[in-house]
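Try this one yourself first.
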């Protein structure tokens, strides 16, 4: 079994909600004045808000990085541009 198969995957560079929102806005070419507030998220998503949007975990892929694994898209903006075809 390879290191990749056994690893919990996480991006090499964790970001905050604010950083994610600003980067997504930049990729989409839309202004982002502020990230979604917790209150709004709870109103829209109810109990799922915590699991989907508000919970956080700073997970680092140290085992993968230590094995020499190279991420195809090491930063959020590159990843979003690839996923959204921008």
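Now uncover the answer:
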């Amino acid at each position: 079994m390879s290191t990749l198969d056994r690893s919990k995957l996480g991006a090499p560079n964790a970001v905050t909600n604010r950083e994610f929102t600003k980067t997504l806005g930049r990729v989409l070419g839309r202004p982002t004045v502020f990230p979604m507030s917790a209150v709004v998220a709870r109103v829209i998503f109810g109990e799922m808000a915590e699991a989907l949007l508000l919970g956080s975990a700073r997970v680092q892929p140290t085992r993968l990085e230590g094995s020499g694994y190279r991420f195809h898209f090491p930063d959020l903006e590159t990843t979003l541009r690839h996923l959204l075809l921008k």
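Discussion: The radius of gyration is 15 Å. Residues 73 and 79 are 5 Å apart (CA to CA).
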